[in-house]
């Protein structure tokens, strides 16, 4: 009798497991499908090319028309076959030039008007000079964990749009491009969730601002991320080809940007991604270096970078294996998300251990001197200019680390990491401005207020001497 009950129970359990598996597959499949309208967005920007993507409810042959004057779109590019997911690559464009465009079919334009435009990237040659008059000014936007529709997301987005209009950079009232730090669509990165949490709320920006995304843990729960985004694998936008869309690099003027995968790629000494990283950084000739990924090396926000179990130890691995490579290459700013706060470091280097091992010896430039043990002086690190002697990339000359995971979510945390004098339970986003030898960063909250700001100046005559190496 007992055997029959156990056998029957086992059979019922097996059926339940099978049904659960089928339901899970259906959930993933249905969640990965979005068959509605998707407004155009810009991918893979270079000095001479741009990719425009959009989606329609019905299959048709997509047509893009472009021109340098709004209302006079003289060039037409058609897809080769009908589809509902459209992709047109524009080539032979002029560098640093604004083009207006429309998308649709041979018979009608689905999206058109003066608000549909893009600007090609400037010349990326390292020989264009380093003085303020000969270098194209660069402005870009950074968000972290922004893929959750709601009041915070709307406020952060609108605050950036308002602030950039009020504070133009050499005539720029919109960013040249947009970096995301991962978790682009909560909760699971499905195609439907991307539409709800990314494409719909950011449509006014995506129509004219190319986006470069990092891969986050919530993006990795489905496969839509790599279907949605066109990312370089063979150095299409500069840098060194990685042969994968998970991590990549690109150039914009005198800026080199590296986007790493802290979620799914192995992060260990001599792992494939880190071998590529070393080669990419060794070959760049650009003046400025910004590196971004999802898991922060330093945080005491909604995650704890000291924990070896939090996020499967990825934060510790980034700190131990990635940071030495970046600092040896002279990285200027390192960006991460994941922890739903805003935290910003001292101008520092060579700290690869736990938070309790941090001390003033790791600070490269205090600008001005401040006692790191005094809570009252922590806010003195706001709105400072940090100095580097070299005008190009120089090893161990100082790096700012930023954890920004509050562009749509805001959680709780201790916010007491000693390497992070600016630690705020505040939502917001960042605007980077680069003009010649100076990089300036403003963290703008959802009310449009600048609550943290810092600059890095290269070629400063009074800059501290860079370390020869980390001990």
TrEMBL record:
Keywords: Signal. Residues 42-120 form the Purple acid phosphatase N-terminal domain. Residues 139-342 form the Calcineurin-like phosphoesterase domain. SUPFAM superfamilies: Metallo-dependent phosphatases, Purple acid phosphatase, N-terminal domain. InterPro entries: Calcineurin-like_PHP (IPR004843), FN3_dom (IPR003961), Metallo-depent_PP-like (IPR029052), PAPs-like (IPR039331), PAPs_N (IPR015914), Purple_acid_Pase-like_N (IPR008963). Pfam families: Metallophos, Pur_ac_phosph_N. The keyword Phosphoprotein does not apply. The keyword Signal applies. One of its GO terms (molecular function) is metal ion binding. This is Purple acid phosphatase. It comes from hydrothermal vent metagenome.
């Amino acid at each position: 009798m007992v055997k029959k009950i156990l056998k029957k129970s086992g059979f019922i359990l097996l059926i339940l497991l099978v049904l659960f598996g089928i339901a899970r597959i259906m959930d993933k499949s249905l969640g990965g499908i979005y068959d509605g309208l998707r407004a155009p967005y810009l991918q893979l920007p270079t000095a001479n090319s741009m990719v425009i993507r959009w989606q329609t409810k019905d299959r048709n042959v997509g047509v893009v028309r472009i021109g340098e004057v709004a209302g006079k779109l003289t060039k037409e590019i058609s897809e080769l076959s009908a589809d509902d997911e459209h992709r047109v690559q524009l080539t032979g464009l002029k560098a640093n030039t604004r083009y207006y465009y429309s998308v649709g079919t041979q018979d009608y334009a689905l999206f058109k008007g003066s608000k549909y435009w893009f600007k090609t990237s400037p010349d990326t040659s390292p020989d264009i000079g380093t003085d303020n008059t000969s270098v194209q000014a660069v402005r870009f936007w950074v968000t972290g964990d922004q893929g959750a529709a709601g009041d915070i997301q709307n406020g952060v987005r609108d605050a950036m749009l308002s602030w950039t209009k009020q504070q133009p950079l050499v005539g720029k009232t919109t960013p040249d491009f947009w970096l995301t730090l991962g978790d682009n669509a909560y909760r699971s990165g499905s195609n439907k969730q991307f539409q709800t949490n990314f494409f719909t709320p950011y449509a006014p920006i995506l129509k004219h601002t190319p986006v470069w995304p990092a891969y986050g843990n919530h993006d990795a729960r489905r496969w839509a991320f790599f279907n949605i985004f066109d990312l370089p694998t063979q150095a299409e936008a500069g840098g060194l080809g990685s042969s994968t869309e998970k991590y990549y690099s690109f150039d914009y003027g005198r800026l080199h940007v590296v986007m790493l995968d802290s979620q799914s790629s192995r992060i260990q000494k001599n792992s494939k991604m880190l071998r590529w990283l070393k080669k990419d950084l060794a070959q760049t000739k650009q003046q400025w270096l910004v590196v971004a990924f999802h898991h922060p090396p330093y945080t005491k926000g909604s995650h704890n970078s000291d924990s070896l179990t939090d996020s499967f130890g990825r934060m510790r691995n980034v700190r131990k294996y990635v940071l030495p490579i970046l600092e040896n290459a002279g990285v200027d700013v390192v960006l991460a998300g994941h922890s739903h706060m805003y935290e910003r470091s001292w101008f520092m280097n060579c700290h690869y251990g736990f938070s309790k091992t941090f001390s003033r010896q790791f600070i490269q430039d205090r600008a001005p001197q401040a006692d790191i043990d005094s809570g009252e002086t922590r806010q003195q690190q706001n709105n400072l200019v940090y100095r580097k002697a070299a005008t190009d990339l120089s090893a161990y000359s100082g790096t700012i680390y930023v954890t920004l995971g509050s562009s749509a979510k805001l959680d709780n945390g201790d916010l007491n990491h000693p390497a992070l004098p600016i630690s705020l339970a505040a939502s917001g986003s960042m605007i980077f401005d680069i003009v010649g030898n100076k990089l300036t960063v403003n963290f703008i909250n959802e009310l449009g207020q600048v609550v943290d700001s810092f600059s890095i100046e290269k070629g400063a005559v009074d800059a501290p001497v860079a370390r020869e190496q980390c001990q």
